[in-house]
Design a protein that fits this description.
The chain is mainly beta and 387 residues long. The protein is built from three helices and 29 strands. The protein has helices at 2-33, 43-47, 209-220, and strands at residues 62-66, 83-86, 91-95, 101-103, 108-116, 120-127, 132-141, 148-149, 154-158, 163-169, 172-174, 191-197, 200-206, 235-239, 254-257, 269-272, 278-280, 285-292, 298-303, 308-315, 317-318, 325-326, 331-334, 346-352, 355-357, 363-364, 369-370, 374-378, 383-386. The strands form six sheets. Strands 2, 3, 4, 5, 6, 7, 8, 9, 10 and 11 form a ten-stranded antiparallel beta sheet that branches. Strands 15, 16, 18, 19, 20, 22, 24 and 25 form an eight-stranded antiparallel beta sheet that branches. The longest helix has 32 residues, at 2-33. The radius of gyration is 28 Å and the shape is elongated. The chain starts with a helix and ends with a strand.
Amino acid sequence: MTQCFAVSLFFCTFAPMIRYYIAIIAALFISVQTTYAKDEFSPLEQQQISIETPGLFSKSSAFQIDFTNMDASQYSFPLPVGKAEASSPGTIEIETKKGDAVKAMFDGTVRLSRHNPNYGNVVVVRHTNGLETVYAFNAQNLVKSGDRVKAGQTLAIVGERPLLFSIMVDGNRINPSTIIDVKSHNLRKQILTFSKEAGKVTVKAKYTPQQLQERAEKAQTMSLDSNDPFKGNNVYRLNLDLIKNWHYPLDGSHVISGYGGKRRNHSGVDIKNGPGTKVYAAFDGKVVQSGVFSGYGKCITIRHAFGLETRYSHNSKNLVNVGDMVKAGQVIAIVGRTGRATTEHVHFETRIAGKAFNPEYVFDNNKNQLHHGTLQFKKNGGVTRLK
């Protein structure tokens, strides 16, 4: 009886204090979750489209957004019935009929809603996840600064011009295709890390094993009739870890002439082995060229599902024909010295959208092995290896 009375007395005495601290903790949690979606903004924030988000990188140089578990109620494409195409770097144009409703992509707070000399009527929404979305060239804005909005809520009305849409992080525009599939309008199910260094924001994607498998299966169904993997975008990324079937073009070989060079501007690498050695297809694909081709001599070009083309030349004999489907490791030719060649070897090229790039990005020529990691290609040329 005495113990029960003591417990009852304790709760009667301290319950108000416990409830008070629980309320404080809950308030702090809510404030953390909504740091970037406040109700009031400075005059500059309400006027300037590209501006830093206060506190976004104050505690760390990077933050993550997990899109893998986001349901349909938490995301909306800005114009669900519109046709979207990449425009200038970091923006997409979405074309639909006049009078259609422009939708908020995620939950957030309207930071800016005004007429801009360059972008017409424009709305900028700051989201709780740290992103900002920009909706420009509206006929009429239907929200004002400080308004809280939900994903899918109408922000504006489309005018004569297509909607110009972009996504920003800390005032930096990022490629919308990193977050959404422009063609299907779907949100990419992934975890993104946003990092800031020297004033610039970079984005890195992290996929689950299941997502990697789905991407690999999608890549394998890509049409082999076109060698343009950009599909209207300015950047294309190729994850070499998704390529399961591969074979180095020439066994037991070494490079005798590398890529590039000021004098030769060599478009591939020359791989040396003895005469009569077998030449192998580097990856699964479709033969799109087989025959004598200018200085290449007897040459074979294979188009692969993930956007690559590979070329093998100076062969003494081609063993495949145009239209043949080949597997990685299949013998496609015999080493020779046809065309402009002074010794038996294979001139091996890798190409994206018809443009040659250094095969060393794909293969470690010293070890005759496929590299790991992701390659990023720019439509106007250039390739980099992402960490």
